[in-house]
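ok, trying the design again with the full structure, not the truncated one.
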């Protein structure tokens, strides 16, 4: 194995270690996002319940104002009934009072219904608030564990990145440029050993003369099918 190949493989080993760390960090981020989504969903439910409560309270207040208005009108009609003299006029006022009383009864019944709805909304809000508190308490230990793992992985990643940068400097610039181009398009190994007569990545057959050069260490060639850099493993015979 040539020094150039050895250095390139060392760089790839460090890049794959970095990739493994990044994959784990992404998995933890997704796990935290899942925990956040549970609480966000509950908070959206809370917002809906709160809006319903506000609407119900506003409806109750509007009804109270209307009922107060109807009662004031009734009081005036009753006072007027005491002062009227003619039977016909008195009957007309009585009719007005009775009709208004029926309207007032309906409005008061609606107020009771709306007031019950307000209480239902308050219970719904309390239930969602309790659910959010339970979620937060239940997630607390898990979040602490995940945050500790993130800190550990980020420290390991910083050290691995420093080692990777040091290894990259040792690789020939032209070879590293080829390698970096491939790394930008692939998430797995880009420097791959021959497997018999074929590429170890896609198993496409490699022409004999190229295999000979690769095995002789005079050529770091790309697979014509998948583009990976091919090399020959050193075997003990």
């Amino acid at each position: 194995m040539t020094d150039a190949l050895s250095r390139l493989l060392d760089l790839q080993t460090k890049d794959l270690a970095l990739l493994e760390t990044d994959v784990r960090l992404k998995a933890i981020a997704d796990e935290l996002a899942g925990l956040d989504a549970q609480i966000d969903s509950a908070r959206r439910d809370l917002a809906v319940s709160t809006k319903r409560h506000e609407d119900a309270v506003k409806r109750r207040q509007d009804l109270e104002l209307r009922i107060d208005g109807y009662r004031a009108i009734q009081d005036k009609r009753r006072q007027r009934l005491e002062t009227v003299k003619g039977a016909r006029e008195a009957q007309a006022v009585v009719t007005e009072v009775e009709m208004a009383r029926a309207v007032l009864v309906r409005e008061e019944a609606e107020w009771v219904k709306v007031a019950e709805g307000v209480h239902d909304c308050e219970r719904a809000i309390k239930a969602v608030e309790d659910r959010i508190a339970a979620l937060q308490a239940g997630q607390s230990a898990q979040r602490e564990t995940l945050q500790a793992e993130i800190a550990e992985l980020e420290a390991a990643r910083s050290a691995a990145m420093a080692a990777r940068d040091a290894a990259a400097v040792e690789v020939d610039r032209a070879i590293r440029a080829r390698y970096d181009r491939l790394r930008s398009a692939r998430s797995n190994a880009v420097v791959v050993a021959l497997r018999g007569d074929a590429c170890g990545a896609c198993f496409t057959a490699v022409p004999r003369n190229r295999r000979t050069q690769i095995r002789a260490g005079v050529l770091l060639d790309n697979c014509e099918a998948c583009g990976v850099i091919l090399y020959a493993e050193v075997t003990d015979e």
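Keeping the full-length input from now on. The first strand starts at residue 191 and ends at 195.
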